[in-house]
Every structure is written in structure tokens, then in C-alpha cells.
């Protein structure tokens, strides 16, 4: 289907179904029940799932395929956001021109940054991209270019937003929030009440989800193309590639620009959902977060980054909401002393302490599961398969012993 | 002229901090070949050693004085620090006043221990893993350390004053025969002196002791040193402890200059990496030189005359310089061929 293999088509269809029915899947608990706080089916969070999914897919195209670890990808996220808000300010609240501009501008920046950073590899590359991203953060946080030119470009620490005094040359009377070509407003939500459950269908979410599917499809094509093969060859042995007389730089640069464009698009979508752009989106912790998403899900795999992004954003939102009252209600079945003890133990890891859990998770994944969730799933799958075989035929085992390479 | 001199002086203390952190980073990198993103967190832990010592020394007994009332009409609480009741009020208050220098004695064993445990418990398992994994695991560790400190000490900066003997500033102007004033805080002078002392000590240790000689040999050719029957790994993990202690001491003494908060390590880390890269990966003199150079450049760029031409240049000058240097001298200022060439 669409020129991709059978397995990839299945994967794409699964992702499409998940994205389509996300409002149902993410809201398994009835509203008002004690478990309702684990529901993730509200528009804001669902939008984040797909937007950061796009961001992580793009990052994976660079890190997963070429092995170049960029520590400055959040810079492109910020650039994308600024581009979209600027289009709101100049034209109107239609998101399409802004998204195009976001992709183009981030591609230009990625080209410049990649051109310089890719002269070095390994940690030098990581540090160079980190330095560039911090520089961009400093520039936009204090609006240095704006001050230099005597105007406003990023509006400093306040963040860029739309004011009524802006030109907005295409604006119509009814426009006050981001919309898609005047057809539908991003914030419009249809709520379906079914018994004790209620499901939100948000226009912005479905817009992002469609883009996610397109981007996921593109990523599959890149993974399976000769270009993707070349990038993987760079990862496994760049020296050998050079010896065969091949200049790898154009390939890595192309990968860097493509992943920068993905990041710019994700940043643009963030501003499409909420017409604001701030410098904090560029901070290096944000770059670290996308690295974590990719690693956690499984770098170099197709579905991994999406899983990782969903996992982190989900737990970030849910964990941050858990406070001591919630903990007490959980451990209420235990005897009093035990209850307080458990609450004291868990307390540092939830609510404001979510970052501690994140850091620990980061370390545990890198130490024990370098292949991420995807590898974890495969390992579990293998254990089950082996058990089946043990229960089943002795012949398979014998065959395995004769030819261990067949595994 | 005097403005420029003042900025150079101002750059010295920041440069000292950069140089000390970068020195530790380079030591770890040159010996163990590990990129330590948690090094900033070690600097931060050092600063919180100073905070801890100060808090411990100020632990007080509370007695109620019924004769006096506070503004709510309750009996006035009189706090007497334990050290004052042990050593008498004068010696006691003197000890509290000098808590930051005293914290050095506390920080050295603590940081050596933390560094050693970190190396044996975590970093050791990452020598054979790719650099990306090393970066990621130490980045995770940095987040964890930072959050632990935040949990115990809160998110706000904690003021940690220097001994009152060092309050005030020294006027350089008469010394240089200038008629304007050129005031420079005493503590910053102390910090500069202290860091040159530490840098000197580290270099002397590497240059003039047998242990240092073996370590230098191991940095140059680890395999041969191993073949000579020397347990180089053990020495390298001690070097990790020493690098941690250097970062910790930089943090202890920096506490009075900037009130410690839990993310100060991250703020310094990015710049220290830039310093290491500019100085040349694996080159100790390069790290020190680049540290001071970039510190001074940063303060020179914050001169009003410079800012009038290029607003905000002080915030990005370090990155610009780093990019230019990496493009013109890819190995950094003093990097040698063959060290970290991938």
C-alpha cells in the first residue's frame, strides 16, 4: 500500500486507528470516578501527544539513522512557533501559511547550523548543537536581533503574541482564534456523552493527527529508501563509507535539515493550537526531553519515538497531578502507619517531583534497556515464543542447536 | 580604561569557575574518555556543601524568654547555636561566620567520596558504550542529583555569606595610579586566588608525583601502562574523585558570590563544555586558558560601549567565539592530534 511493505502498512494502519479513536482509547474511565484522573483524553494533552510525536519522529530520523546526537533540536521547535505567530500577526489566524513558513525557516536554520556542526562528529557535534541552541535561546530570550534592528522579533521573555494593533492584513471580523482555512477553529470541540463517559473530539487534535500520519508515512518512506540505507551505513561505519570514495556530508546534512523541518513543523503546530511562542521552548532541557522520548521509545525504530513521546507526555501530566490527598486515598486500605509510610516514600516522586522520576527513568532506560520500549516489547515477546517452543516441539530446539545463527 | 580594567577583573572570577569546572571535565575526559554531563551537578553539590555546613553550624537550641515579648505577644524565642554554647559565644560566632571556608574541609572528603562512588557505581559500566550513551546516562544523573537537592533545599537560592572579614571591596585605583575608583570585592579576589591555587595544585600533583606520572602515562597510552603491570583503572577512578573534588571546591567558594540554587550546575555546565571544546579536548592547560579567556571576554562584552554597538552581545559572545574557533582550529586552542579524533 502506498509503496510501502506489508509490515509497514500494518504499522501505519495501527497508528492511524489509534490516532482516530484516541479520544475513546485515552478515556477508559467514567467521568467523576476515582480513576478519572488517569484519563488522558482531553484536547490539550492529546494535541501534545501527536505534536511531540512528530518532533520525536523527526529527531529519530537524525539520531536513529545516522547516530548523530543533536542536543539542540528544541531551537527548531522554537523557530517554528515564532514563524507561525508572526504569520498570525502579519496575515490572519489561518494556520496554513504559518506552518509553511515554519517549515521553511527551520529548514534554513537547520541548513546553516547543520553545515557548521556536521564538520565534527561524536561529542563535538553534540556540544556544537548544544551551543547553537543555547545561543538561539539567549538571542530570543532577550530579543537581541529585535533590539539590534530596533524592532520586535521574539518579544523577549514576555513571549510573542498577537495584539490588536498588529497589521493582520487578511483578517475578517469573525476571526479571533487559530483556524484551518476558515473551515474550522482549532479549539472547537464536540463532546459526546455516553452514559457515565464523556469523550472530546477536538478539531485541533485531528488536524495534528492527520499531519502526524503524513509525517509518519514520510518517515517510513525515508527509512526504507536508499537514502535511509545510506544514513544507516554512516551510523555503522563512517570511515568505511569515506574509504569507498563517498562523501557522507551531504547525506548527513540532508538528514539534519529534514529532522529540523520536522521539529519546526511540530513547533508550528504548538503555536497553531495556542497562539503563543516563548523562548523557553528552546531551552536545552527541551532538547533533552526529545532525546529522552526517542531513546525511551527506541531509537532507530519507526514506532518507538511516537510511543516514547506519548509515554513521557502522559506521565508528565498525570504524575504532576498526583498530590498527597490522592496518595492517601490510594493507600487507604493499608493500616494507618503503613499508609503514612507509603505516602512519605512515594511523595518525592510525584507532583512537583515528577522530574526526579523522569531522571531516574532516563538512567534506568539507558542502563538496562538501550533499545527502549520497543526492545523491551521484543524481549518479552521472545520469552513467550521460547516458552511456546519449549512446550511444543523438541525438533525446533534441536534445529536451533544445530544452527544457532538461524535465531 | 578603568572600565576595561574593571571588566577584566570581573571576568576573572567567572573565568576561574569556568576554568575549574572545565579542568575537572577535561581530567575525566582525558583519563577515562567519558563525557560527564553530571559535572555541573558536582559543582552544584559543592555549593550545597557550603549551605549544609552553614546550616549545621547554625543549629540552635531555642529557649523562651518570658520577660520579653515578640510582636505577636508570645514569649521571645532566643536561639543559641550549639557551637556558641560549646565554644563560648565569641569563638562560636566566629566559627559560624567562617562557615564557607570551613566547608572546604567538609567538601573535600564528601566530594571525593561522591566522585568515587559515581565512577565505581555507574560510569565504570559505560566505558565500552558509545559516547551518546555516556552523555545520556550522566544527563539523567544530573537531573536526579538536581531534583534531590531541590527536594531537600527548595527551589529558591539560599544566601550563603562570606566571612565578614571579606565584606567590602578593595580599591585598585591607587595601586595603579588611577584617579578614579576601581573597587573590587575582597571575596572575588579570594576566589581568584583560591582557584589559581587549586589549578596549581592539580598540575603539580600530575607533574611532580609518581601517581601523577602514571596517570599522565595512562592518558597518553593506556594499554602500554596496563601491560607494564600497573592497575591504571584504579588510578583513573581516583582521578575521577579528584575531578569531582575540584568541581566541588569551585562550588563551595562560589556560594557567597552567587546564592546557590538547584539549577546553577546546569547553567555552568553548558558553558564549561564550550570552554573544554575551545581549549581543546583532553588538554588541561587548554581548559584553564580557555576558561579565563572566555570569562574575561564575556565581561568585556558587557561593557556599555560594546553593548551600544551590538546589544546583548555579552550573552552570546562565548558561543560565537566557540563556533569561530572550532571552524578555524577544529581541535581547539591547545588540542593535540590524536586526542579524541573519533
UniProtKB/TrEMBL annotation, chain A:
InterPro entries: ABC_transp_permease, LivM-like. Its main location: membrane. GO terms for cellular component: plasma membrane. It is found in: Cell membrane. The keyword Transmembrane applies. This is Amino acid/amide ABC transporter membrane protein 2, HAAT family. Pfam families: BPD_transp_2. The chain crosses the membrane at residues 9-26, 46-63, 94-116, 123-141, 203-223, 250-270, 290-315, 356-377.
UniProtKB/TrEMBL annotation, chain B:
Signal peptide: none annotated. Pfam families: BPD_transp_2 (PF02653). GO terms for biological process: amino acid transport. It comes from the Bacteria. The keyword Transmembrane applies. The keyword ATP-binding does not apply. Keywords: Amino-acid transport, Cell membrane, Membrane, Transmembrane, Transmembrane helix, Transport. InterPro entries: ABC_transp_permease, BCAA_transport_permease. The chain crosses the membrane at residues 15-35, 42-64, 95-114, 189-215, 236-257, 269-296, 308-327. GO terms for cellular component: plasma membrane. It is a multi-pass membrane protein. It is found in: Cell membrane. GO terms for molecular function: transmembrane transporter activity. Belongs to the binding-protein-dependent transport system permease family. LivHM subfamily. This is Amino acid/amide ABC transporter membrane protein 1, HAAT family. It comes from Sulfitobacter brevis.
Amino acid at each position: 500500500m502506498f509503496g510501502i511493505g506489508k509490515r509497514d502498512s500494518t504499522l501505519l494502519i495501527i497508528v492511524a486507528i489509534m490516532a482516530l479513536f484516541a479520544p475513546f482509547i485515552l478515556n477508559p474511565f467514567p467521568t467523576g470516578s476515582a480513576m478519572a484522573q488517569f484519563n488522558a483524553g482531553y484536547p490539550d494533552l492529546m494535541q501534545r501527544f501527536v505534536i511531540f510525536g512528530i518532533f520525536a519522529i523527526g529527531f529519530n530520523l537524525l539520531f536513529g539513522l545516522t547516530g548523530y546526537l543533536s542536543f539542540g533540536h528544541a531551537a527548531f521547535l522554537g523557530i517554528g512557533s515564532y514563524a507561525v505567530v508572526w504569520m498570525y500577526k502579519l496575515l490572519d489566524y489561518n494556520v496554513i501559511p504559518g506552518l509553511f513558513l515554519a517549515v521553511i525557516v527551520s529548514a534554513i536554520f537547520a541548513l546553516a547550523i547543520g553545515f557548521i556542526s556536521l564538520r565534527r562528529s561524536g561529542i563535538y557535534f553534540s556540544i556544537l548543537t548544544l551551543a547553537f541552541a543555547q545561543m538561539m535561546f539567549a538571542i530570543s530570550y532577550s530579543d537581541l536581533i529585535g533590539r539590534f534592528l530596533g524592532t520586535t522579533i521574539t518579544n523577549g521573555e514576555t513571549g510573542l503574541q498577537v495584539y490588536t494593533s498588529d497589521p493582520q492584513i487578511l483578517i475578517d471580523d469573525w476571526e479571533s482564534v487559530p483556524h484551518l482555512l476558515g473551515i474550522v477553529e482549532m479549539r472547537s470541540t464536540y463532546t459526546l456523552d455516553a452514559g457515565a463517559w464523556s469523550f472530546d473530539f477536538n478539531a485541533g487534535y485531528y488536524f495534528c493527527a492527520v499531519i502526524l500520519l503524513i509525517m509518519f508515512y514520510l518517515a517510513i518512506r525515508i527509512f526504507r529508501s536508499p537514502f535511509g540505507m545510506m544514513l544507516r551505513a554512516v551510523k555503522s561505519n563512517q570511515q568505511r563509507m569515506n574509504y569507498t570514495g563517498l562523501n557522507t556530508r551531504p547525506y548527513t546534512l540532508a538528514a539534519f535539515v529534514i529532522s529540523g523541518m520536522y521539529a519546526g513543523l511540530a513547533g508550528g503546530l504548538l503555536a497553531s493550537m495556542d497562539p503563543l511562542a516563548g523562548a523557553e521552548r528552546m531551552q536545552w532541557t527541551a532538547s533533552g526531553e526529545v532525546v529522552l522520548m526517542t531513546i525511551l521509545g527506541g531509537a532507530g525504530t519507526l514506532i518507538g519515538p511516537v510511543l516514547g513521546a506519548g509515554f513521557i507526555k502522559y506521565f508528565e501530566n498525570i504524575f504532576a497531578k498526583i498530590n498527597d490527598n490522592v496518595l492517601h486515598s490510594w493507600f487507604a486500605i493499608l493500616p494507618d502507619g503503613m499508609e503514612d509510610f507509603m505516602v512519605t516514600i512515594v511523595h518525592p516522586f510525584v507532583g512537583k517531583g515528577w522530574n526526579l522520576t523522569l531522571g531516574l527513568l532516563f538512567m534506568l532506560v539507558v542502563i538496562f534497556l538501550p533499545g527502549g520500549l520497543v526492545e523491551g516489547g521484543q524481549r518479552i515477546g521472545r520469552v513467550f515464543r521460547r516458552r511456546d517452543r519449549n512446550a511444543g516441539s523438541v525438533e525446533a530446539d534441536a534445529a536451533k542447536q544445530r544452527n544457532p545463527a538461524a535465531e | 580604561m578603568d572600565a576595561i580594567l574593571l571588566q577584566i577583573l570581573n571576568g576573572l572570577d567567572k573565568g576561574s569557575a569556568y576554568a575549574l569546572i572545565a579542568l575537572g571535565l577535561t581530567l575525566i575526559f582525558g583519563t577515562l574518555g567519558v563525557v560527564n554531563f553530571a559535572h555541573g551537578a558536582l559543582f552544584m553539590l559543592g555549593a550545597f556543601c557550603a549551605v549544609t555546613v552553614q546550616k549545621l553550624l547554625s543549629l540552635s537550641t531555642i529557649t523562651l524568654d518570658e520577660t520579653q515579648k515578640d510582636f505577636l505577644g508570645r514569649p521571645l524565642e532566643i536561639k543559641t547555636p550549639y557551637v556558641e554554647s560549646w565554644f563560648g559565644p565569641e569563638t562560636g560566632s566566629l566559627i559560624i561566620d567562617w562557615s564557607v571556608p570551613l566547608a572546604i574541609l567538609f567538601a573535600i572528603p564528601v566530594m571525593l567520596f561522591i566522585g568515587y562512588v559515581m565512577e565505581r557505581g555507574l560510569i565504570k559500566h559505560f566505558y565500552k558504550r558509545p559516547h551518546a550513551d555516556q552523555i545520556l546516562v550522566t544527563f539523567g544523573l544530573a537531573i536526579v542529583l538536581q531534583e534531590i537537592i531541590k527536594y531537600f533545599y527548595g527551589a529558591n537560592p539560599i544566601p550563603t555569606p562570606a566571612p565578614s572579614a571579606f565584606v567590602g571591596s578593595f580599591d585598585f585605583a591607587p595601586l595603579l595610579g588611577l584617579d578614579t575608583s576601581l573597587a573590587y570585592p575582597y571575596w572575588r579576589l579570594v576566589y581568584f586566588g583560591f582557584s589559581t591555587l587549586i589549578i596549581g595544585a592539580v598540575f603539580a600533583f600530575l607533574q611532580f608525583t609518581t601517581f601523577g606520572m602514571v596517570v599522565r602515562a595512562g592518558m597518553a597510552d593506556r594499554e602500554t601502562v596496563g601491560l607494564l603491570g600497573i592497575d591504571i583503572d584504579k588510578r583513573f577512578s581516583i582521578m575521577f574523585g579528584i575531578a569531582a573534588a575540584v568541581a566541588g571546591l569551585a562550588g563551595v567558594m562560589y556560594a557567597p558570590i552567587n546564592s546557590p540554587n538547584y539549577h546553577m550546575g546546569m547553567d555552568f555546565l553548558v558553558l564549561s563544555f564550550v570552554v573544554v571544546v575551545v581549549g581543546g579536548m583532553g588538554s588541561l592547560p587548554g581548559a584553564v586558558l580557555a576558561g579565563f579567556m572566555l570569562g574575561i571576554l564575556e565581561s568585556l562584552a558587557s561593557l556599555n560601549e560594546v553593548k551600544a554597538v551590538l546589544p546583548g552581545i555579552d550573552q552570546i559572545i562565548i558561543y560565537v567565539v566557540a563556533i569561530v574557533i572550532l571552524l578555524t582550529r577544529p581541535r581547539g586552542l591547545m588540542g593535540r592530534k590524536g586526542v579524541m579524533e573519533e
